Amino acid sequence: VAFVVCRSLEGLKTFSYLEELILDNNRLGNDLLLPRLPHLHTLTLNKNQISFQRNTCKILLDHLAEVVPSLQYLSLLGNMACPNELVCKEKDEDDYQRYRYFVLHKLTNLKFLDTRKVTRREREEAFVRGAFMKVVKPK
């Protein structure tokens, strides 16, 4: 397990057998680039600066799908990308569920997203409609 407070993730490439990585509270954004970590199964990015601006979160999720193929647990709580009614009063459970479908559509191997286990029904819904569930704010 690695607990990292960082300005750069450059040194992570030397830990190719890393299985768990906690990057909470690091001001990381959608431009986050991880090296290939084929054994990483747990990644927490809580309380960073990840958002659903334009297509940048889609790009981040595509990047994670490529570089951490074994990822089973991801937590994005406390980021703008994770619409949570406890953090933002304008968000509700429907917003959060749409976010889950979108993330599960991109990261098909996840067993847990944030604090909740991924259900079979969610996985099926994500497969069918996940690409269209990105939560966006009207301009």
TrEMBL record:
Coiled coil residues, start to end: none
One of the Pfam families matching this protein, by short name: LRR_9
GO biological process: melanocyte differentiation
Tree of life domain: Eukaryota
This protein's name: LRMDA protein
Organism: Hemiprocne comata
